[in-house]
Amino acid sequence: RVKRRQDYKPPQFLVDQVKLKFILDPSDTRVLTKLNVRFNTTAYGACDTSNLYLDGDSEMIQLVPNSLKVDGRTLEQGKDYQVSKTNLIINSMDGSGNGVLVEFQVSLNPSKNTALMGLYLSKNNFFTQCEAEGFRRITFFPDRPDVMSIYEVTLVGSRQDYPVLLSNGDCVESGVCSDEKYHYAVYRDPFRKPSYLFALVAGNLVHLEDSFVTMSGKKVTLRIYVQHGNLPKATFAMECLKQAMKWDEEQYGREYDLDTFNIVAVDDFSMGAMENKSLNIFNSKYVLANPETATDSDFEAIQAVVAHEYFHNWTGNRVTLRDWFQLSLKEGLTVFREQEFTADMTNRAVKRISDVMRLRTAQFPQDAGPMAHPVRPESYIEINNFYTVTIYEKGAEVIRMLRNLLGPKGFRKGCDLYFERYDGMAVTCDDWLSAHQDANPHVDLTQFRLWYSQAGTPQLSASTEYDASKSVLYLHLEQFIPPTPSQLLKEPMLIPIKVGILDRHGNSVLVDTGDGNAVETKVLDMKEFEQTFTFYRVPPNSVLSMLRGFSAPVKFSWKHQQSLDDLIFLMEKDKDEFNRWDAAQTVTLEYILQVANQLLDETCTLQQVASRVPAPSKAVLNAFQTILLDESLEHRFRSTMFVLPSELFVAEWMKPIYPDAVHLARLHLKRELASYLKRSLWSTFRKLEKELEGEHRLDSESRGKRALKNVCLEYLCCSQDPDALSVALEHFRKANNMTDALACLNILSAYGKEQGEVALAEFYRKWEHEYLVLDKWFRVQALVPSKDTLHRIQTLVESKSFDIKNPNNVYALIGGYALQNPYAFHLKDGSGYRFIADKILELDKINPQVAARIASCFTVWQKLEPNLRSLMQKQLERLFLRDDLSKDVFEVVNKSLTC
Ligand code: ARG
Ligand code: ZN
Question: Whose atoms come closest to the Cα of 199: which ligand?
Answer without folding.
Answer: 1
